[in-house]
């Protein structure tokens, strides 16, 4: 059957007809590559881009050239993206990734980026090409440098000696850049000189650091004490390492969003304990629970806050989520929880706290007229926001409170920290009971 007829069948007819045409084109191999690639590049075609891409990657290595051409120069982002996926699928059919690794030296930064991304996805299979990826850490294009840095940790622990060798022997420009790659792969592999320099830098920055608003996503505790050692003891935290406030925040957010890169305990292997801030010490980390079940978490948070309040007189547990509207607060005094609230949680403890007065709770909905949003395009966020602001004024609707609203009144709001806070001492990152026998979580952190 002629290739043109197969292409026609690939874009029309019942699914079995299209599947049969795709199979015949794949059997033709290199002879079909140019025609299928032309379909993928076409502005208008009866064949979907993903269908043409699927045929190309199933043909395999003979399709590599046209795929690279599309990565390099096609104006449509969708076509370039499908070509990138096709490159990855071609790589999966190769026993030797050298044809992909050679693309790391391609003149086009798009191709170099796609090649690095493809090797990243092949994991330890790409380890023989670690040297070429390391070279890209000094690429003139920032996106290529970034992608190479992301790819190297995925090559596994075997990449560490190559990074250490560059860190030790150079060349000069790469020596600085591999430091981040080492931290992203295995922070414990940093040599003693680098670790000592890191400690010195932290000490220097601590002297002049000013509190700054934090990005909040997760749990933190607030304890009315300046005794950091007592906080560490009460939470069974050990091996405190001095950090800047910026570094502590970076570690907490990294651990919350890393997805557990070591094992089930890696997300709560360490906690960030702040310096005393206006007489309060804040602790960031999932110390109460190893379980993500909300009922288990709620019970354990209440128990921990009650116990800590017996030691410090009061203890608050707060949660904010950056991914949705979840928020929670737990207020304990002298050994007992006096208020617990969580969005859409079945259990509340205690009457509304005075700090909640004048606010709506997050799951409370104000009564509005049936025609409140008549004439407003609900897809237009700006228009919806403007109407909501007007409705609040017209109907005296109070603001909605969140954990930061409560923290701002009762302790310290981490999202509003600034030079107005009195700072005593320095912050530390400490190991939890789960983290004491684990390696340092990988990830380069801001200092």
From TrEMBL:
Superkingdom to which the source organism belongs: Bacteria
Gene3D superfamilies reported in the protein's UniProt record: Leucine-rich Repeat Variant (1.25.10.10)
Family annotation (InterPro entries): ARM-like, ARM-type_fold
Pfam families in the cross-refs: HEAT_EZ
Protein known as: HEAT repeat domain-containing protein
Species annotation: Allocatelliglobosispora scoriae
């Amino acid at each position: 059957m002629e290739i043109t007829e197969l292409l026609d069948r690939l874009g029309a007819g019942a699914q079995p007809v299209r599947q049969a045409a795709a199979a015949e084109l794949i059997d033709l191999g290199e002879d079909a590559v140019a025609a299928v690639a032309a379909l993928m590049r076409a502005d208008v075609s009866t064949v979907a881009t993903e269908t043409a891409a699927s045929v190309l990657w199933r043909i395999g290595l003979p399709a590599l050239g046209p795929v690279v051409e599309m990565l390099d120069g096609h104006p449509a982002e969708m076509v370039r993206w499908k070509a990138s996926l096709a490159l990855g699928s071609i790589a999966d059919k190769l026993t030797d990734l050298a044809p992909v690794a050679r693309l790391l030296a391609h003149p086009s930064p798009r191709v170099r980026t796609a090649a690095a991304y493809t090797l990243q996805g092949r994991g330890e299979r790409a380890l023989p090409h670690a040297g070429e990826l390391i070279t890209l850490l000094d690429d003139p294009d920032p996106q290529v440098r970034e992608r190479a840095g992301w790819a190297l940790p995925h090559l596994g622990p075997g990449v560490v000696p190559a990074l250490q060798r560059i860190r030790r022997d150079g060349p000069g420009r790469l020596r600085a850049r591999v430091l981040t790659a080492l931290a992203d792969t295995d922070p414990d592999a940093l040599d003693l000189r680098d670790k000592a320099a890191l400690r010195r830098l932290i000490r220097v920055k601590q002297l002049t650091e000013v509190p700054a608003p934090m990005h909040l996503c997760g749990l933190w505790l607030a304890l009315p004490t300046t005794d950091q050692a007592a906080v560490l003891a009460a939470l069974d935290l050990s091996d405190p390492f001095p950090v800047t406030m910026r570094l502590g925040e970076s570690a907490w957010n990294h651990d919350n969003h890393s997805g557990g890169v070591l094992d089930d305990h890696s997300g709560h292997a360490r906690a960030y304990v702040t310096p005393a801030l206006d007489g309060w010490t804040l602790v960031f980390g999932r110390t109460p629970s190893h379980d993500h079940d909300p009922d288990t978490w709620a019970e354990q948070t209440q128990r921990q806050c009650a116990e800590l309040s017996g030691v410090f007189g009061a203890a608050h547990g707060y949660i904010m989520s950056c991914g949705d509207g979840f928020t929670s607060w737990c207020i304990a005094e002298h050994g007992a929880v006096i208020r617990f609230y969580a969005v859409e949680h079945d259990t509340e403890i205690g009457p509304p706290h005075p700090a909640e007065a004048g606010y709506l709770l997050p799951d409370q909905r104000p009564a509005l007229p049936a025609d409140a949003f008549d004439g407003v395009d609900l897809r237009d966020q700006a228009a919806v926001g403007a109407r909501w602001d007007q409705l609040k004024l017209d109907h005296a609707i109070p603001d909605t409170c969140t954990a930061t609203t409560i923290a701002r009144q009762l302790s310290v709001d981490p999202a509003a920290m600034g030079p107005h806070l009195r700072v005593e001492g320095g912050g530390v990152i400490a190991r939890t009971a789960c983290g004491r026998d684990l390696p340092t979580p990988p990830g380069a952190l801001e200092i």
